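pasting for ref
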Amino acid sequence: MARTYREVAIEEMLRTVEEAMSGVVDWWGDLPSPMKEAIAQFRTQLGAAIDSVEFVKKALDREIHDRGDGPA
């Protein structure tokens, strides 16, 4: 299944948040449950924020076409 730019953008932003949270608590293992829940809630809010701006939603909803050149 083809991925969209929206999915990639959300994944990369969440990865940044997870890394920041891990750095703040000086913990590089599995994050505590409350932090995981906060990240899940942020994912939902981030998706809603993207979808609330029509031109951003249209731009990010495009599929990424794999050219076989590595990561998109």
